[in-house]
Design a protein that fits this description.
By secondary structure, the chain is mainly alpha-helical. It is built from 23 helices and two strands. Strands 1-2 form a two-stranded antiparallel sheet.
């Protein structure tokens, strides 16, 4: 009887997780579907979908999103593979800096990078004006397709870089030596041996970049101009200044859900279909880069990472420059921070910390339970819960924001603009990081440790809290820091849900940019970047080594 109750306790957890996701995710998404088919007379209609597919302007947004996403994925892969190869197979000086800087470029708020590139390569950017003055040349500006491609590629290449580092570490050196003895060297060995063994990981990284680029809202919103993408169109239809059409926005959101769900299923299929394991009993010995090839390695690695991190460095520099509206003047001061204080800097910091802390506490609890269900209580229900928890990771944030407004913006809830709905958005959007990290750590823990505890008389629940959770702590904490970084840089959902009372650092930065207050915007961005850097340092400390980083 006692044993049955113990088993039922975890079954109750499964039911609880199912009910939780039904309330915070399935119910809001069904609300979007309902709004998408609502007619003016109270009935149901497919007119909103017909309007989308009948107008080439709207259909073009899908084409634009796929076009730029495919281009970003290809360029990110081409940028990342040489860097990852140099990093994994050669003893590069400053390799830890290369890794940390790439990670920072990847985890910083997307729209801050876009804004910084506007300051550098916009119509009045410092680089644009400098080249015009010195060489008399007018270079293409950062706006449109090319700008989105540049900014997103430099932001997302670290995903593939980090993924491939793990794959290259697992290649056994005896395979490399055997191929060399058979005359397979250089580029041929790289393609035939290294890339063949790393293909499952590369595919996972490519699909991750594809999903992140497709769902990105901040970058195309800032620099897209006439090049309109899918997530931006959803936002414009829902809260745009030209006109609002909530039913039409909901219809576009449903289309976005179907597209991202299809992408997610392709990822799941590809991961299972191409998955195989390799273990490096004899890890590859890193060589010292020498001669002209060594120069090429250092030049490529530091130039790529330097360009990728330039936006973060430049926006921090501008935070201390004197500014007047959209223009920066000569001289340095703390005036931008004083103006930011007048524009609710302290409230934004407080809201960021409070909302983030509440969301993170909930995320950690949910992640521990889901990780245990997936690894130790595997089954159809556990896998379904895991799949539900991952869906928001690939959906455009604006879709989640609209879904929450539809579900909790009217009686009996009326949560729009409150801390509760801001926290709920963060939990839904950012828990996948901690779930994945906690799950990866638990997989590495032998079940014999728990069996030993139970054999000594401890109950299964006591074993879970006293043995399993402490052993999972490194994965939980490292994943929690990644969730935290994603939380403090969240924009797409927050921009639909916030008000003046719940404004955070990300929204304060975006609002200042939108209003042409570039000095305070840089001050907000500086504080946000500093918070991101501190979080990354904590993450690397908890991970113990960059080799343990999991995205």
């Amino acid at each position: 009887m006692t044993e049955k109750k113990r088993i039922d306790a975890w079954f109750a957890v499964k039911i609880g997780m199912m009910l939780l996701f039904a309330l915070i995710l399935v119910y809001p998404l069904f609300g979007v579907l309902r709004q998408a088919v609502e007619a003016a007379d109270g009935g149901y209609t497919l007119a909103h979908f017909k309007k989308f597919f009948d107008d080439t302007y709207y259909v073009t947004t899908i084409y634009n999103s796929f076009k730029v996403t495919v281009a970003v994925t290809a360029v990110s892969t081409l940028l990342a593979l040489p860097l990852s190869y140099f990093y994994s197979f050669y003893q590069l000086k400053g390799s830890r800096f290369l890794f940390v800087a790439s990670l920072l470029a990847c985890m910083s708020a997307p729209f801050i990078g876009a804004y910084s590139w506007i300051m550098l390569l916009g119509r009045n950017g410092i680089v644009t004006k400098g080249i015009k003055t010195l060489l008399g040349l007018t270079i293409p500006n950062i706006y449109g397709f090319a700008g989105i491609l540049i900014v997103q590629s430099l932001k997302f290449y670290p995903l593939i870089f980090i993924y491939m580092n793990g794959a290259f570490r697992n290649i056994d050196n005896t395979l490399m030596e055997a191929s060399e003895n058979m005359g397979c060297t250089g580029a041929k060995r790289f393609m035939k041996i290294v890339m063949s063994l790393s293909m499952p990981t590369l595919l996972a990284g490519v699909l991750m970049v594809f999903m992140r680029a497709f769902a990105d809202f901040g970058t195309p919103m800032m620099i897209g101009e006439g090049y309109r993408t899918f997530p931006v169109e959803i936002y414009n239809q829902y809260v745009g200044e030209v006109g609002q059409n909530h039913n039409f926005a909901a219809a576009i959101s449903v289309i976005a859900i179907l597209i991202t769900a299809a992408i997610f299923l392709i990822q799941k299929w590809a991961t299972s279909h191409f998955k195989f394991s390799i273990n490096a009993l004899h890890p590859v010995q890193k060589k010292k880069p020498r001669g002209f090839l060594g120069f090429i390695m250092y030049a490529y690695s530091y130039l790529l990472v330097g360009i990728a991190t330039l936006p973060n460095v430049y926006v921090c520099y501008l935070a201390f420059r004197n500014a007047s509206g959209p223009m920066f003047k000569e001289g340095y001061s703390l005036d931008n921070f004083r103006m930011a204080l007048d524009r609710l800097l302290l409230r934004a910091i407080k809201n960021t910390m409070v909302q983030g802390a509440l969301a993170l506490a909930i995320i950690i609890i949910i992640s521990i339970l889901i990780a245990y269900l997936v690894v130790r209580r595997a089954g159809p229900m556990s896998n379904f819960i895991d799949t539900l928890s991952m869906l928001p990771y690939i959906m455009p944030g604006s879709v989640i924001g609209i879904a929450l407004v539809v579900a909790f913006g009217a009686k009996p809830w009326v949560l729009t603009g409150t801390t509760a709905i801001m926290v709920l958005n963060l939990v839904i959007r950012r828990m996948p990081y901690t779930i994945r990290s906690a799950t990866a750590r638990l997989i590495q823990i032998p079940i014999s440790m728990e069996e030993a505890s139970i054999s000594l008389g401890a109950s299964k629940m006591k074993t879970f809290f006293k043995v399993t959770v402490p052993m999972m702590s490194s994965g939980i904490l490292s994943g929690a820091v990644l969730s935290w970084v994603a939380i403090v840089t969240e924009l797409a959902g927050a921009i639909i849900l916030y008000n003046n009372a719940t404004i955070n650092l990300t929204m304060s930065t975006y609002a200042s940019i939108y209003r042409g207050k570039y000095g305070p915007a840089c001050a907000f961005a500086f504080v946000l970047t500093l918070l991101t850097v501190v979080s990354m340092v904590v993450y690397l400390k908890l991970s113990g080594s960059e080799d343990n980083v999991q995205l």
